[in-house]
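Hi W., the nicotinamide-adenine-dinucleotide complex you wanted:
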Amino acid sequence: MEILLTGGAGFIGSAIAARLVGAGHRVRVLDALLPAVHPDGLAGVRLPAGVDFVHGDVRDRATVERALHGVEAVCHQAAMVGLGLDLDDAPDYVSCNELGTAVLLAAMARGGVRQLVLAGSMVVYGEGRYDCAEHGTVAPGPRRPTDLDAGRFEPPCPHCGAPLLAGLAAESAPADPRNVYATTKLAQEHLAAAWARACGGRALTLRYHNVYGPGMPRDTPYAGVASIFRSALAAGRAPRVFEDGGQRRDFVHVEDVAAANEVALAALAGRPAGSARVYNTGSGTVHTVGEMAAALAATHGGPAPVVTGEYRLGAVRHIPADALRLREELGWRPAVAFAEGMARFAAAPLRGADRPVAATASRR
Ligand SMILES: NC(=O)c1ccc[n+]([C@@H]2O[C@H](COP(=O)([O-])OP(=O)(O)OC[C@H]3O[C@@H](n4cnc5c(N)ncnc54)[C@H](O)[C@@H]3O)[C@@H](O)[C@H]2O)c1
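Structure:
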C-alpha cells in the first residue's frame, strides 16, 4: 500500500515507519517536527531508507493535499501528547489534535482517500473500570486534592465511599476524559467516525495504553512515566514514583504497537464502508508504576526507586486495558513481554538525551 504516516518522525511513528517499510509498503511521512519534540529538527530524526519525508503541518490544507497525492490509506499519529504543563497548553493541544485531524479528514474526503488508522489513547476512559461490592460497576469522579494530599489515592465508591475493586476497561466503557489532551484524543475519534459516515470511509482507532521502548522522548512535561524514570536512571538519580506507586497500568512495547498498526491497515479493506471501530491496544498484562520503576532500576543497576507521595492533578489511578477485541478480530498478538521489554528499554537510547530538563508540574 501507499501510506501517509502523519507524525512519522515521532516516537511511535518512527517505529511504525520501520515496520511498514519492512513489510514492503510505500510510506510517506508528514511531520511538523514540533520544536518541543524535536529540538534538533531533522538532524535528530531517524527514518528508514526509502521513506518519503514531507516537513509540514497537518493543519495546513495545501501541505496535506500534496502529501495525500497517490495515497491509499492514512495512519494518523501526529498529535501533541502528554499532560502538558498547565492550561496555557490547551489551545495548542486542541489546534494540533482536533483542528489537525479535521483538516486531514477534509482533505482525505476531497481526495478520495477512504482508509484511516488513528492513534487513539486509553486516556479517553478517565479512570478505568471499578466495581463496588454493593453498587456493582461504578464510575468514580475525579480524585479530590484534599484526598490526594492526605495520601488517599484510591478513588472510593461514588455512592457509599467504600473501597473499590479495579478491573479491566473494555472498549464499551463510557468515555470520561479528565484533561485537555484526553478530550482532544476523544474528539479525534468522533471526527474520524463522522468522516467515515459522511464519505463512506473506513476508520479503525487503536487506543494505545502506556507505550514504551527505544526512541522514547526523555523527561519533559509531555513525556510518559517510563521515559521519566529511564532518564532519571541515566542521570544516576533514583526514579521518583508518585502517589504510592500502586497505579495500575498496561505497558505495551512500541514494536507491538507498530505491529498493531500494520494489522489495522491490512484490515481496513475488509471493513464496511462508513464504519468506525475502536480497539484497546495493550499487552494484556497489568503492572503498577512502582513495579515498572523497580524493573527498570534493577536492570539498569540502580539507584532504587523512591516513592514520593507527589501527584499530578488529572492523572488517573488505574487504567489497565482489556485488549481481547484486537486479538480476536485482527489477530494481533503482543510479542514483547514486560520483563524483556523493560530490560531492553533500560539500555535503549532516549530521544534528546543530552538536553536540559524542564520542570514537571506536580503537587506536594
Ligand atoms: N506514547 C504513548 O504512550 C501514547 C499513548 C497513547 C496514545 N499515543 C498517541 O500516539 C501518537 C504518537 O505519539 P508519540 O508518543 O509518538 O508522540 P511524539 O511526540 O513522539 O510524536 C508525535 C509526532 O507528531 C508530530 N506532530 C505533532 N503535531 C503535528 C502537526 N500539527 N502536524 C504534523 N506533525 C505533528 C510531532 O512533531 C511528532 O513527531 C499520538 O497521536 C499520541 O496521542 C501515544
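The CA atoms of residues 80 and 93 lie 6 Å apart.

W.
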